Amino acid sequence: MRPIRFLKEVIHQAARKALSPLPRRKRYRVLRYFAEYDPAPSPRLLFKIAETREELEACFRLLHDVYVQRGYMQRDPSGMRVTIYHALPTTTILCAKFDGKVVGTLSLIRESAIGFPLQRVFDLSSVRARRGNIAEVSALAIHPEFEHGGTVLFPLMKMIYEYSTTLFDTRHLVIAINPRHIETYEALLFFRRLSGNIVESYDFVNGAPAIGATLDLKHAPEILRKHYSGRPLRHNLYHYFVAMQLPNIEMPSRRFYTTNDPVMTPELIDYFFNQKTDVFANLSERKKTLLHLIYDLPDYCKVLPPLPNAGSDLMVRQHRRFSVKCPGRLAALDSEDSPIAMEVSEVSRYGFRARTRQPVTPDTWLTAIIQLGRQETSLLQVRCVQDTQIEGNHRYGFQIGEPDLIWRKFVNALYDGRTQGDLDNATRFLSSQ
Fold it and tell me: Could you tell me which of 409, 412, 402 has the C-alpha nearest to residue 431?
């Protein structure tokens, strides 16, 4: 351990020991008082989605080395920590790079058929009761040279906040964290524990203890404003997370309003999960089946683990749905009433689901104008066939009469591809329509 790192660790441990006798509320207030971020990080730092084989491999190697050092896993012959969750199109892997070298990583795992790691041991019923999509913050690793002072951690957390609230359509973040670090997340970022109990042996991290916690992003800005507003700039985490623009963060550029940024091509899946590791070989039959339901295209099926009976027992929904976040409006035919604003959350070939604040008359044909991307708008004749009211909002299912060309090409591209590049390539002609 280098002298500066050693000194920082000694100071950190001494501060924790000095604060430990204080009541929790006062202790947290002191931690917030000293919380500090860098408003102008070095331009040599870049925060982005890991998308190339080199970036992904560097993330998995850093995660492996940090987890082995902390005792969270046994050393793997591949030198990487790769899990089934990294293979999913609903998982986004973020990375921090310094002079082009990966020095930090974490993964955002949206709920899918395979779920996410912590739900196996923590009760999420209180989170689900508040509605909204859930994503687990997982696989956090920071290079030892950057693990103190928040140089990498704070921008990564800021990117999580911005990405989750603007692109990932996520309301709730959940995290399983070692008890040594839970107070940082509670005091500074206002995560709330899922329960008061510590899981003494969490198998996902080699039997280390863990505490589950959650953050409701819908209410986070107001909570941060209450506790940080008016503080000096370097100590104002409300300004940092909610108002400040950080040029070091490179958000994905999407042409369409989808909610995921999958990067795993068949070649990448084969490389990481078959060639370099034995992740697929060790899957249960159930998870193999779920993988085939998620990746049901021929090019993917070639690299997925084989199924018994050639997959003859698979049951696939006839019209799959895809997660999106598209603004739109509904207007009654031959009516001068103001259109009803809506947000489309799922699409399929012949229907979609949407949220509105105003009621929609069932079994009535309406005109739907849906913004599929920055320059692509679909005009459809639809009728409401299902209504569910949640927290003052209506969630409707709509049947499409006859999809227009833009809708058909957009949804067909979702069926035929799995990465953002696939979608762009399959729909590139639309810009000239």
Answer: 409
Tokens of 55: 């970036």
Cα–Cα distance, 350 to 384 (Å, whole number):
12
Q: What per-residue confidence (pLDDT) applies to 406?
A: 87
Answer yes or no: is pLDDT of 15 > 60.
Answer: no
d(CA 157, CA 225): 17
Residue 353: DSSP 8-state: E
Residues 272 and 57: their CA atoms lie apart, in Å, by: 8
- For the residues of 258-318, what is the DSSP string, one character each? BS------HHHHHIIIIIS--TTTT--HHHHHHHHHHS-SHHHHTTSPP-GGGGTT----S
Q: Is the distance from CB of 118 to CB of 139 less than 8 angstroms?
A: no
Q: Which of 62, 64, 69 is nearest to 95 (CA)?
A: 62
Is the confidence at residue 318, as pLDDT, over 70?
A: no
CA pair distance 386, 432, nearest whole angstrom: 35
Mean pLDDT of the chain: 87
Q: How far apart are CA 393 and CA 134, in angstroms?
A: 18
| Residues 344/354, Cβ–Cβ less than 8 Å | yes
State which amino acid sits at residue 372. L
Residue 16: pLDDT band (50, 70, 90) is low
- Percent of the chain at pLDDT > 70 equals 88
Q: Assign residue 8 a region (left: φ > 0; alpha: ψ between -120 and 50; beta: otherwise).
A: alpha
Whether residue 106 contacts residue 91, with contact meaning beta carbons closer than 8 Å, is answered with no
Q: What are phi and psi of 222, to 5 degrees?
A: -65, -40
Considering only residues 343 and 392, tell me which one the structure prediction assigns the higher pLDDT. Answer: 343
Check: CB of residue 211 under 8 Å from CB of residue 199. Answer: yes
Structure tokens at 210: 């863990």
Cβ count near 402 (within 10 Å): 9
The CA R_g of the chain, rounded to the nearest whole Å, is 23
Q: How many CB atoms are located within 10 Å of the residue 354 CB?
A: 26
Secondary structure letter of residue 256 according to DSSP: B
For residue 93, pLDDT over 50 is answered with: yes
SS3 of residue 210 by DSSP: strand
Nearest in space to 253 (alpha carbons), one of 263, 261, 243, 245? 261
pTM of the model: 0.85
Distance (Å, whole) CA 136 – CA 172: 8
Q: Which letter does DSSP use for residue 239 in this model?
A: I
Confidence at 307, pLDDT banded by 50, 70, 90: confident
Alpha carbons within 13 angstroms on the beta-carbon side of residue 49 total 21
